[in-house]
Design brief:
Radius of gyration: 19 Å
Structural class: mainly alpha
Largest sheet: none
Number of helices: 13
Number of domains: 2
Distance between the termini: 59 Å
Helix content: 55-70%
Number of strands: 0
Order of helices and strands: HHHHHHHHHHHHH
Amino acid sequence: MTQPTEPVARARSGDRAAFDALVEAARPRLRAVIRRLVGHPDDTDDLTQQALLKAWQSMDGFRGDASFATWLCAIGTRLAIDHLRSRARWRARAQVVYAAECLDDPALAGELMTAIASPDQRYDVREHIAACFTCVGRSLAPEEQAALVLRDVEGLDNKAAARALGVSTSVLRHRLAAARTAMRERYDDLCSLVSKRGVCYQCAGLRDAHPAPRQGPEAPASLDGKRRLQIVREADLDGASRPLHDVLFRHVEALEEAGRGDASSTTDCGTADA
């Protein structure tokens, strides 16, 4: 076992200032992991605070087998899994359902356009690809989604990801394989950048809805799994497009909880010709 650093040792002894200093460095990663899992900004805030409280209450049990940030993210991930278990799984086409509902509901469409018009809003297609990754991820079993995020996005090795989730490496590998297969199949069905059969054109459509100075880079001409993961790793869901994505996640969650909309239908919303 690694000997704890001086700040960790002080925090374990009840020094709140030392704990807060550790948290200051680790909080961005904690929040990023939780938001990648749940999407919804308010739930992300709540779960982040729960994780920090639980970490403080459990600090004397931290033995330094992993970095403080990794340990903190493991706490946040397990809380996020519990949260997701209590919620309906999203449909893989949840964003398409939301786009179709916006066509039929002026209030939904108006809120989306208000976010786009916000002076704080800047569209970044990379952030939207990351948001889509979370939306599709929420169609997985929470345990599979967490395995995918920790292993393929956060870059933990199998042993560290399994420890964070409290499972064996064989269980971790099984969940990861199932998640990768499901994500590949669902992206083939959904994303026009990945497959010609994909029904979703939001990356281009949302960019076109923004004023030219706030459109950001163009969507890539095509997207494979490796490049998508690279973009997801680098993108910040609390970045330039946060006003837009906060609205998207709030309403997609409400639609999915209520089971509203037809996921089997397609929509022209999000295409350049809509």
